[in-house]
Amino acid sequence: MIKDMPRLGLLTLIAAFAIFLALEFLPGRRELNDQYTNCATQMTSTCLADIGVAEASRAKSLPSYLNEIRALGQMEYIDQAFALELRIQQGKESSPEAAIAAANRHVASHRMTAAIMGGQSPRDAFAQTAGADPGSIFISALDLWGDQPYGPRNVVRRLPDDKTRAIISEMAAMIAEKVSGSGPQSATYRAYAAELFALVGQRDDAVDVLRPLATDENWHERLNDEVFVLIGPEIAAELCGEKVDCQKEMQLRAAEVSGDVAVARTYLSDLFSKAARKEPWPDFTEMGEIIERTAERGDTEQALDFARELAALAQQKRGIFPAFPHIEAAKALALAGADTAEIRHSLDLAEADFPRKENEVVGIGMVSGPIQWGGFGLGAQASREIANLRARLGDIDAAVRLMQGIEQPDYAWSEVLTPDVPVDHLDQLLSAAKSALTEEDFAYVRACHAQELVLFDASQAHLAWSVATSEVILQEGLYGGHKAGWIYRCIATVGFDLKNSSIQRAAIESMGRSALESKDYSSLFRAALVLYDFENSERG
């Protein structure tokens, strides 16, 4: 009978049946309450995920995009992830067929990874995975390689073994085989294949898959450093054909890789001059990026020359918006190691260039029309960036003054507190921040800064501050607002990176308890994945 059913009706039945299966075995509310109690007593990633699935499945509606479904996929709750994704897609797509196809695409990489880890060959896994495409292969390959394509996780990175390398090689070949024709999607897939070939060191295969990209005007922008080093500068320049900008970019990258200071200086100088001569105004942002690239290469002399040239130009010509050319100059001077007096001078000029009124029109948008200094967040952005530079210089009173009454203070203070702010200034800055923030937002700003210091290899004094701050936040009582999970996630990362298991364990437990109290499925999914990684690390 089903055989005779029209195809659309069959698809509708399949979709409905998938939802039915997901809901049929949900616990009743009383049973679910018991699960909450049991999970709070003996917390595991499984009980957090199970409760999260139950709460999400009971929700009257789901948001149009639920990033936390990825957490389920990474924990091998793939059927549950598909059921939830299908509900989301049914609210977005015009037909059951389209909804099923979209849901399959969203979980395809998870299905492929699980199948390969279960012993299937990549080709069999691809053939049996509905909705899989070259993009799914690429994401699955990065996952198997340990590159964490779904977002950062607190897991120890292990070097891929020979078996994994062989699997990645085969997956790269699969993508290369499936690419045909030209156009943006084809170019993207070729870049995917080349990136995987670079991981396993297959130079000839990477070159072969890239050759057709030579007809793409901007193909070199798709070339990451690993692929460039693998294929070599000669092949890279050859693939540029007659495109002059492409050839210059390849020669510059070759000089940077080889350490050829003279060649790199010449090309960076050309790029800098070109950005400075742009009309109707200089591209101060691009000039700043070139200075950053120069400084990262270790050529502080040229970086400082560029920064001073930018600062002088900012005094002669306007940019798209007021103040920002001087801010860009101050950032460049700081990056290049200029004297503090030079940096402060550019900051003074930036503040002097602020419009007097918040509603002053400072530009005209093609779509938005008149752009007001205070109405588009420009004033707040300028204040944040100057306050950060003032804090780094030790001008704390000036930094605090700029932050008074600023919009979105939690975000603003997180932007000001960067790893290069001296640890001696943190207490005074945070004292000012505390008066503008709720208790939970204040904990969030401190926890995020503690994590950032650890991730960016800050000084020992900064790391000691991170540990002490994490311990204080953990003792402040359980936070339960919408930022609670992120607070404890940041602290768990501090514990993980510093190999402080007591902080990591306490943060994960607080993250789980907060999620259970909130009954929010997104928080439960996030907490489940963090605990899942911790459980697996303890098992070795």
UniProtKB/TrEMBL annotation:
Taxonomic superkingdom: Bacteria
Name under which the protein is recorded: Uncharacterized protein
